Amino acid sequence: MDKARVLSLFLGVVRANSFHRAAVEAGVTPQAVSKAVRTLEADLGVRLLHRTTRKLSLTAEGARLFELADPGMRQLDEAMEHVRRGRSDSEGLIRLTAPPSIGSRVLVPLIKAFRDLHPATQFDVVLSDLFTDLVAARIDVGFRAGSQPGQNLVARRLCDLPLLICAAPSYLETHGTPRSADELMAHRCTAFRRPATGRIVPWELRIDGELVYREMPAVVTFNDVDAEVEAVRAGIGIGQLSAYMVHEDLAAGRLVTLLPELCGGDVGLYMYYPQRTHMPVRVRRFIDFVAEASRGAEGGLARLAARSEAPAARARPRRARRDAPGA
Length: 327
Prior knowledge:
- This protein has twelve helices and 13 strands.
- The protein has helices spanning 3-16, 19-26, 30-44, 60-86, 100-117, 134-137, 169-175, 181-185, 225-233, 243-252, 281-295, 302-305, and strands at 49-51, 56-58, 92-98, 121-127, 141-146, 153-167, 189-192, 203-207, 210-214, 218-222, 239-242, 256-257, 266-274.
- The strands form four sheets. Strands 3, 4, 5, 6, 11, 12 and 13 form a seven-stranded mixed β-sheet that branches. Strands 1-2 form a two-stranded antiparallel sheet. It has a two-stranded parallel ribbon with strand order 7-10.
- The longest helix is centred in the first third of the chain and has 27 residues, at 60-86.
C-alpha cells in the first residue's frame, strides 16, 4: 500500500466533502478513491467515514486523522510546489566549484554579471585545486583549467589559456635574459606540482615548430598557482604561467615576457556539469550565460584567451657566474 497516496486521497475526500470531486481533483476515478479509503481503513483497523448515498461525515477517528495529517500534507504540497517553481525561474541556489585562481579571476566577474540579470539567484562556491566529485558534493557546475574533465560529465571548452614565459625585471637585472631554449635551461625556474597526483607539470615549449615538454631546473615548486606567480613576481625564478593570471602584472611592468617564439602551449578553460535531464532552469541559464560570455568578442572571458601585448624583455648581458642551474 502506498500510504502517502491513500492518505492524500482520504484528505482530498474530506476537503471536498465528496468522493467524486476528490477524484476529479486527483485525476482518478471515484472507484479508485473509494478503494483507497477502504484500504486505509483496513490498514488502521478503524472506520474513518460514514457514507450514505447523499452525505459524508467523519467518524471520531477520521476527524482525528484529518486534524493530524492535513497540516503536514499541505506543508509537503507547498514544499513540492516550491521546488517545482524553482525549476521554472531563476530563484534559488547554484553551487559551483573551481580552483582558487579561477574562482577569483573568472567566477567572481561571472557571478556579478549573472546576478545583475537575475538578482534572485544565490551562489555557493567551493574552491579547491582537487578535482571535485560533482554528484557526491552536490555541485551544479565546475570549472577547471587544463585537460578536459573525465567521463560521465558534460564538458565545454570555454577558451584557450595561453602559457607565457615570465620573469620579474629584478631577476633579469641580476641573472640576465635567456635568448634561447638552451639558455633558458641554465636559469633558475619555478614549477607547479599537481595537488591530486604530486607530479610536477613539465613546461610546454614550441621548438623547431613542434610542441615539446621539458622538465625545467626548478629552484622552487608549488602546488598553488597563486604562490608560484608571487614567487616569479618576487624575482625567485622564471615561470611558465597562464596569461590570465599575469596580465595585470605585465601591464604594470611587474613582469615581462621572455622568448615569445617558444610560447606555443595553451591549456583549456573548461566548464563541466553532470549529465542530467531535469536541470533547474537557473542552472541551465547560468550555463548558457557562461557559454555566451566565452563567445563574446569583448569583455566576458575574451581577455583570458588574449596573449599579452606587453613588450618582451630586452636581452641583457648575463653574469656567467650566476647562470648555472641552482646557483
